[in-house]
Amino acid sequence: MKLFIKLMIVTLLVCISVQAAGKVNILNTNATTYKSMLTTLSKQKHSNSQTKLQILLLKTLLNLKQPAARNIKKTYEIISSDQYANLFTQYLSILQGKIQDQITTNTLSAKLKLLRNQIELFGGKKDKLLTLQLQYAYYARLLKNNNIQISDSDKALLYIKDLLNKSIGNFVFNIYDIKKQSNFLKKRLLLINHNIQQLEILKERYNLLGYKADISRVASKIIQNKKRYDRYMRQLIVNQFLDFSYLLSKKDHKASVLQSKIVNNLKTLAYPDQVIAAIEPMLTQMRREHLGGISYTINIVSQDMKVVSKYAWDFMSYSIFTINGTGISLFKFVMAIIIFIAGFIIGGKYKRELKNIIFHKMDISVYARTIMANLGYYIILIITFFVSLNILGISLSSLALVAGALSVGIGFGLQNIVSNFVSGIILMFEKSIKVDDYVELADGTHGKIVDIRMRSTTLNTNDNIDITIPNQTFIQTNVINWTMNDNIRRFEIPFDVNYGQKPEFIIKIILEAVQKSGFKDVITTSTNFSRVIMTNLGDSSVNFSLFVWLKGEEIRHPKRTMSRFLILIYNTCYKYGVEISFPQRDLHIRSIDKGVAFPINLIKQPD
User: How many Å apart are CA 108 and CA 93, to the nearest integer?
Assistant: First the structure.
């Protein structure tokens, strides 16, 4: 009964202290109180689970001591690369321990918050409340010790980081041995990784067969190899840090590359993000101090540019669509378009320059010049097309599938285009129509051929109007080529005179007028000479035609040529008093009363 009264008094004192503070305050209880409570609880003859738990918590609180602080000699000096490497290894170990302590701190804080809420809202038995209070005190002591360890770790890390930075240049790095060992570690890592992959394949095989013993044996080997891999990777990271420090001592900007490798290897080892977040700023600070302000800034900008370039490259390399299973990235698509456009530009430039170069060489015909220009242009386009396909990664077999699909369309909607294309090839090689020829179409349109392309031909009329005509028109319809083989043509100029003149006289004066006209384009040979013939005896006129052979550019202007010779004929007839006929009618008027008819000549003036 007395023991129960004592226990009640202790519990009452604790509850009073809690209520007075409004919070759980048993943490501030000293060791004497814990011992008194432990003695009282231990003397109870009938103890339940709550009592046993309270006894264990009290013993733990009494045995829980403050952790010893990390002592690092301030006089510690680095005189070799081995010591420097060991110090960096120690830094990694302390940093990893600090991260674990921070995780533990977060866990304990969450537990304390939960217990605080339970205590403040508790309404059950008092012995159970004491258990919650003791648990709270235990977690609070652990949190305090953990925070002390974190504080000590921060001090140690700060000192080691400063020592590592200041020690660069105090000793000689054996860079040859460092690189040799790094190469050895890389080979070992590749071999171990290969072994792990083989073991994984073997494990899958045993898993399919259901060999449980073999699966367990292989899984054990995989774990051993992964431990070896982590051990070698840690050694490689240390070696890379030594190499990084050596480059800093030499003011070499390649140290930034090694910094990236160290960070990536830390990620490979699955270090917590907090470790990487602490190591990277340390390496950056060392670079800043040893490479100098301007050099560091330039190096940082360079690194940022590399990061941006890598991001841009990754973005451009992402497949935006696929063609027959081949992924087409934005970079390939843009490059293909640029190359194709460049092909058009180069082809057009080639076409223009070739015409300009050959223009002054009179021994090369216009036809040959056009054929060379057009064929070269299309060859450049074809080459550009295939280069673009190669850039896109599309094989010719894929192109054959597309061509097979297009053949159906060609049979329906593209037949005219194909017909014009084939007609253009025929015109280029058949030479029935050439560039610079003067032609007349079936509808009366005439003009000079200025260009023959694969699909159409350009005709320039005397009015300087360019007409684009499909090539199949020249194949399927009648076309008069005035200058197919030469630029000689015979013109027929018809004219009429009144009756009363001898035909021989008319023929003579007209021929003499042509001979004395001074027209330089009129030619006279044994086979080609001018002549005048009488063609008909009309109702009111005698019909003649002047046939004259012309050579040169004037044959391309038929109306102008006809006008020239008609003026010549008119002036000649006027000179010799020969009347040019014009329509006239005789009208007979008969008198009804006297039956007399009076002939009246009604002369119709020319229009």
Answer: 22
CA 133 from chain centre, in angstroms, equals 66
Q: Do 183 and 305 have their domain in common?
A: yes
* Tokens 């602490």 sit on residue: 278
Which residues face 537 on adjacent strands? 542
In this structure, are 457 and 562 located in the same domain? no
Same domain? For 149 and 218 the reply is no
Interval 386-403: pLDDT, tens: 888 787 777 666 556 556
Q: Are residues 520 and 579 in the same domain?
A: yes
Strand partners, 470: 456
Where does 168-272 have alpha helices with state H?
Answer: 175-209, 212-249, 255-268
For the stretch 525-528, contacts whose Cβ atoms lie closer than 8 Å and that sit 24 or more positions apart, written own/partner, are 525/549, 528/488, 528/490
Domain of residue 399 covers 329-413
- List the end-to-end C-alpha distance of the chain, in Å, as a whole number: 154
The CA radius of gyration of the chain, in Å to the nearest whole number, is 55
CB proximity list for 460: less than 8 A, separation 6 or greater: 447, 448, 449, 450, 466, 467
- What pLDDT was estimated at residue 353? 77
> Whole-model pTM?
0.47
Q: Is 599 contained in some domain?
A: no
Tally of domains in the chain: 5
Q: Are residues 496 and 437 in the same domain?
A: no
Q: CA-CA distance, 564 to 467, in Å (whole number)?
A: 28
**Backbone phi, psi, residue 71, to 5°:** -105, 115
Identify the sign of the CA torsion 381, 386, 391, 393.
positive
Tokens of 387: 């280069």
